[in-house]
Design a protein that fits this description.
Elements: E1 4-9, E2 16-21, E3 36-45, E4 51-53, E5 64-69, E6 72-80, H1 88-103, E7 109-110, E8 116-117, H2 120-129, H3 131-141, H4 155-165, H5 167-178, H6 185-199
Antiparallel strand pairs: 1-2, 3-6, 3-7, 3-8, 4-5, 5-6
Length: 200
């Protein structure tokens, strides 16, 4: 057998014998062996290098730091070059970094979840290419906060109120319900548009 390892694979078919030369052998790939890249959380105005702690995405304890071009900085951490699933854990890690940045007094322009670059040089090129647009956004966002808003409403009650207040909607709805025609598609579309306008 000399310089080769023999692997025997069993399946439903007969035994298959595969020879792998030593020159092609190596350790099995693991997450630690995967190629690394740079995960970008947001862009901030920051002329000096900063660090924000070992809070990077991926659960490896990667440090979050800045990569600079002029007075702009990308807030980043080292990361495996993988497609991050938008699991609760990953999304919260991404958001947590941006929350820490805000707590430190910066106004971030958030990057989309899962934004990865291969190298810091690639990030610098991105900052250079988009510098003017990013500066404009940062000026507009300065000292602004983002809030999420959830609206719960009783749909049937709101629609009933709209019908009471809008005679045109009330009449059209009555016509649709009394219609002997097999198709009221266009009338229902018109009713939907009228309700949408009333809600606006």
């Amino acid at each position: 057998m000399g310089g080769e390892v023999r692997h025997v694979l069993k399946s439903c078919s007969p035994v298959v014998d595969i020879s792998v030369p030593e020159s092609l052998q190596g350790p099995l790939p693991s997450a630690q062996d995967s190629e690394t890249g740079i995960y970008v959380y947001s862009i901030i105005e920051c002329p000096e290098p900063r660090t924000f702690g070992k809070i990077g995405i991926g659960g490896r304890g990667d440090g979050v730091y800045t990569v600079h071009y002029k007075d702009l900085a990308a807030v980043v951490s080292r990361s495996l070059l993988v497609v991050y699933d938008p699991t609760r854990e990953n999304v919260l890690a991404h958001e947590h970094v941006n929350e820490v940045i805000i707590e430190e007094g910066f106004t971030p322009v958030p990057m989309s979840f899962g934004t990865l670059f291969k190298t810091e040089k690639d990030i610098v090129e991105f900052l250079e290419d988009t510098y003017d647009a990013l500066r404009d956004v940062l000026v507009k966002m300065k000292d602004k906060l983002e809030f999420g808003l959830r609206v719960n409403w009783a749909r049937e009650e709101v629609l009933a109120e709209i019908e009471r207040d809008d005679e045109g909607i009330r009449r059209l709805k009555e016509e649709i319900s009394k219609s002997q025609q097999s198709s009221t598609y266009f009338a229902r579309m018109q009713l939907g548009r009228m309700v949408e306008q009333a809600l606006a």
